[in-house]
Design brief:
139 residues, single chain, 0% strand, 5 helices, 87% helix, mainly alpha
């Protein structure tokens, strides 16, 4: 059976939606671990700082993968909001990362709270709102 162009595009949009949602979900899980690792360190277990650094690398890496997925969503589905929201989260995470490396805790702590809150809002939006045009017409 020969697939039509619309069926292929719909399949592409579904894959794009699933990848974006999977990355945002993994991102949320990874970022939720960060305050736990910081708390372990602040409780006196110095291994917690190593876990916090590893977690920061994981969160940042997932953020950049999510940014790539958001660019694909924008290019294929012409939806700008996932890209704009992801850009804001990744920018905050980048500042957060370097503030932590520099020891600027006055910025690192509040920006961490803001970043987690922003990512949770993005998580809810990605799961509640249709990303692709086809999904929007089915909703």
């Amino acid at each position: 059976m020969v697939e039509s162009k619309n069926e292929r595009e719909e399949d592409t949009f579904m894959v794009t939606d699933k990848v974006m949602r999977a990355l945002v979900s993994a991102h949320v899980l990874a970022i939720f671990a960060q305050p736990v690792f910081a708390g372990v360190y602040l409780s006196g277990d110095f291994d917690g700082l190593s876990w916090h650094v590893i977690g920061a690398n994981v969160v940042t890496s997932i953020g950049f993968l999510q940014l790539i997925a958001a660019i694909v969503v924008w290019a294929r589905a012409r939806r700008a909001w996932p890209l704009l929201a992801t850009l804001a989260v990744v920018a905050a995470e980048t500042v957060q990362y370097f503030a932590g490396l520099d020891g600027a805790l006055w910025l690192h702590f509040p920006l961490g709270v803001l970043t987690i809150a922003g990512l949770v809002v993005l998580f809810v939006a990605v799961w509640r709102q249709p990303i692709s045009h086809e999904e929007a017409t089915r909703a």
